[in-house]
Amino acid sequence: MSQLARERCQACSGETPLLSTAEASALAAELDPAWELETERLRRRFRFRDFASAFSLATRVALLAERQGHHPDLRLGWGYLEVELSTHVAHGLTRNDLIMAAKIDRFGEPGPPSGGD
What we know:
By secondary structure, the protein is of the alpha+beta class. The chain has four helices and four strands; from the N terminus they run ααββαββα.
C-alpha cells in the first residue's frame, strides 16, 4: 500500500495550496499508471464487462468519497466508469486528489481495504 493511501483527506478551502507540476508528478508515481495526470485534474477510466460491475465500483468510490469528504466527478455507463479528481474550491490539484486516487487504486488490490479507508 502506498503512503498516500494511508493518509486522510483534509478539509479544503480557497486557501488550500495547489500542487506544483513537479509535486504532482512525484506523488503520481505512487499511483497505478492508468491515472492520467493533467494540469488541473487527475483522470482514470475503468473498463468492465457489464454495467453492474461499473456501478459497483462507482458505489464504492462514492462511499469512500463521503467518508473522506473529498468528492470526485464520476461518469458511469455500460462497461465503464470514469473518475476525475480535482479540488474544485482550490481550482486545481491538491494532495487530497492524489490521496483519493491512491485509495481508489486499493479497490483493485486483493481483499478489502483495511480500516481507516
